[in-house]
Structures are given as C-alpha cells and as structure tokens.
Amino acid sequence: LWLIGKDKFKSFRLVGGNKLETEARTVFECFKKPVRASEFSSCRRIIKLVSEKLLRPAVADIAGKRLLIVRHGFLQHIPFAPLFNPSTDDYLVKTNDLIYLPSASVLEIAGKSPPSKKPGKILKIVGDPIYSINDGRLRKNNKNRRAFLSDKNVET
C-alpha cells in the first residue's frame, strides 16, 4: 500500500499476501450475487476483515481525504466504496471521496489490444447546465427561464 500526498510518501506492507487475495475473492463473491440472509453475517465479516487489512495501516492518514485508488491484481475486481473505514466503521464511500484509476498493467494491456473497429466521426459535447432557479442566465421574461420553469419537476 502506497500513500502519496503533497508532502509525504509512505509505503506499507499489507499483511496476508496470498491469503489476502483469497479473502478478496470471497469478498468478490459476496458482491457478485445477492446475499441470502444466512450468508449476510459471513459476508459482512469477510468484508470487514479485508477492509481492516487493506486500510488499517493508513487509516490515520486517509481520514476525510480524497483517495485515488489504483488497484493491483485481483483487487481490481473489488470496489472500495462498500469496504468499511476501520476507524469509523462506516462505508468508505461515506467517509472519503473515491477515485479509481487503472493500474499500469491494465493500461499496458489496453494499449496492446487493437481497436475493435475503425473510429467513426468525433463528436464533442460541451454543456453548461442550469441547476438553480437563481442562475443569472434565467432573467425575468427570458425564454430560457420560461422553458426551465415549464418542467413539472421544478418548483418556483
């Protein structure tokens, strides 16, 4: 596990090695299919165990931070959002912003595979959405305002 920040770099050895990968595969099975009530506690227990092994070494450093997650090996199949934060026992997605990036090995494989078909024309879409009735582009007696307010989901 590497922790890289603006002014720090730390490296942690994850405990478990091959056993951690086996446990990660069990977590994957829990996420892959609906869990029966009889399996719920065992799935929750293994998810907590894997969360603890992956995150405990850096828990003090990641508190409330945005995490850029680059997974390696079988961990690429495990979403981190439903893992538990060992310090709060909340889901990691509740305590941290999560961003996933592919590992170098995935990028290498993706770069070697030929495109499945010849790319067609390129389309670029740029948007500037209006999320608030107070947006300056919605002035009184403006046709954009009337169009925006005509949506039945918008209250004035």
Task: Give a short overview.
The protein has six helices and four strands, in the order ββαααβαβαα. It has helices at residues 18-32, 37-55, 59-62, 92-95, 104-112, 143-149, and strands at 2-4, 9-11, 66-70, 97-101.
What would you call the structural class?
alpha+beta
Helix and strand sequence: EEHHHEHEHH
Secondary structure tally, helices: 6
**Radius of gyration of CA atoms, rounded to a whole number:** 22 Å
Largest sheet: 2 strands, antiparallel
Q: Share of helix among residues?
A: 25-40%
Describe the structure.
The structure is a single chain. The protein is of the alpha+beta class. It is 37% helix and 10% strand. It has 6 helices and 4 strands; from the N terminus they run E-E-H-H-H-E-H-E-H-H. The protein has helices at 18-32, 37-55, 59-62, 92-95, 104-112, 143-149; strands at residues 2-4, 9-11, 66-70, 97-101. The strands form 2 sheets. Strands 1-2 form a two-stranded antiparallel ribbon. The chain is extended. The termini are far apart. The relative contact order is 0.10.
Protein topology:
Blueprint: E1 2-4, E2 9-11, H1 18-32, H2 37-55, H3 59-62, E3 66-70, H4 92-95, E4 97-101, H5 104-112, H6 143-149
Helix pairs in contact: 1-2
Structural features:
alpha+beta; two-stranded antiparallel sheet; two-stranded parallel sheet
